[in-house]
Amino acid sequence: MLREKVARWIRPEVRAATAYHVLESRGLIKLDAMENPYTWPARLKDEWLQRLSEVSLNRYPEPAARDLKARLRDVMNVPSDMDILLGNGSDELIQIVTVTLSGPGRSVLAPEPTFVMYRAIAEVHGINFVGVPLRPDNFSLDLSAMLSAIKKYQPAAVFLAWPNNPTGNLFDVSAVEQIIRSASGLVVMDEAYHTFAGESFMDRLQAYDNLLVMRTVSKLGLAGLRLGMLAGQSGWINEFDKVRLPYNIGVLTQVSADFILAHHGVLDEQARQICDDRQTLFRELSALPGIKVWPSRANFILFRTASDRVNDVFEGLRAHGILIKNLDGTHELLQACLRVTVGGPEENDRFLNALGSLL
Ligand SMILES: *Cc1c(COP(=O)(O)O)cnc(C)c1O
Q1: From the CA of 5, how far away is ligand 1's center (Å)?
Q2: Tell me, what's the pLDDT at 261?
Q3: By the 8 A CB rule, do 355 and 317 touch?
Q4: Distance (Å, rounded) from C-alpha 83 to C-alpha 66?
Q5: How far, in Å, is the centroid of ligand 1 from the Cα of 308?
């Protein structure tokens, strides 16, 4: 029987997991996944297509992705004495870090609620995941709970999304520094939303030998490319590089990312627009009755409805053609919470009008 064979051979932690679920979004205004709503000027698009037409698809990509790394080093301000590891999205980097650090008795730790992949990747690889609750009122770090969990579990890695997803806040810098100093293992600062927050731990890499900084181009407007970057001391990066599969960054991704990052002013301008629109969206959401809104340093906003209305609101928005993220039931601190990505001004208006009509 197939079922018995699967039960015998597939590891129990994999059978216990559920695949990452993405809701159907065809035909909907997509405000669920922190994507950039903007496209590129026609001139840039033509130039990009020209570059792509010159790519040799019959050849393997350059394994070390030298040009792209040099470009990223420049655009992301990576200190010259630090090394870079590239991943097929930062999801792959989280996987590489977790797998490299795995072993009997090993743990990884993160405050929760946070980006779900830290837990999901640890669990399918049979590594103990320690989630430490954030403070319920403003989702700041509970520093004493973090420090005692670090002391107790001696995690091989602490993951800190900064700004945090789905709460949108930056954790206090001095609290993060105390965590870095107290941890005997690695601390990975996941700066996926760096472009919207404008703050970074990149220039603290020299100060702490257990610190790594992770970035992605996904939230910059290149989610379809799948490219993430991990920066840190070569002593760490060289080890992770042995676990990375040799050609993990395809040639189309290498050429496309190198091209658009050479014109990053276009993406920076889009990010600036998104930050302006985030403030408008925050103000107008706050003015709606029965809604609690949390300030955000990222390109999304977390808000809470009345506890008996969250599913009606979510489904009502979908019936209006708008897809956001329903976080109710994903963590006890996120009861009745929804997360909306900052879209283009017209998308945001349609969302606000639909939401207003549902309250
Ligand atoms: C979206 C997100 C990522 C995923 O990035 P990819 O590069 O698209 O895999 C990583 N970390 C956080 C905190 C995110 O919100």
Answers
A1: 35
A2: 97
A3: yes
A4: 12
A5: 30
Outline where the chain has alpha helix (H): 2-9, 12-16, 42-53, 66-75, 90-101, 117-124, 143-153, 173-182, 194-197, 234-243, 251-262, 264-286, 310-319, 345-358
* DSSP 8-class letter at 354: H
The single-letter DSSP state of residue 194 is H
How far does the centroid of ligand 1 lie from the alpha carbon of residue 192, in Å? 6
Beta bridge partners of 343: none
Report yes or no on whether pTM surpasses 0.90: yes
**Distance from Cα 32 to the centre of ligand 1, integer Å:** 13
Atom of ligand 1 nearest to the CA of 217: 7
User: So what's the pLDDT on residue 242?
Assistant: 98
Per-residue pLDDT at 63:
85
List pocket residues of ligand 1, CB cut-off 6 Å.
Answer: 34, 89-91, 115, 161, 165, 190, 192, 216, 218, 223, 228
Residue 84, SS3?
Answer: strand
Residue 302: CA atoms inside 13 Å, Cβ hemisphere, count? 24
Residues of the chain with pLDDT under 70: none
Closest ligand 1 atom to 164 CA? 13
278-287: Cβ within 8 A, 24+ apart: 278/196, 278/342, 280/345, 280/348, 281/340, 281/342, 281/348, 281/352, 284/352, 285/352, 285/355
Q: What pLDDT score was predicted for residue 22?
A: 84
Does residue 36 contact residue 220 with C-beta atoms inside 8 Å?
yes
291 close to 304: Cβ distance less than 8 angstroms? yes
Neighbours of 174 (CB within 10 A): 9
| Cα radius of gyration rounded to whole Å, the chain | 21
CA distance 211 to 34: 26
User: What Cα–Cα distance (Å) separates residue 27 from each residue in 320, 325, 327, 354?
Assistant: 11, 16, 22, 16
Ordered strands of the 325-326 beta sheet? 292-293, 300-304, 337-341, 325-326
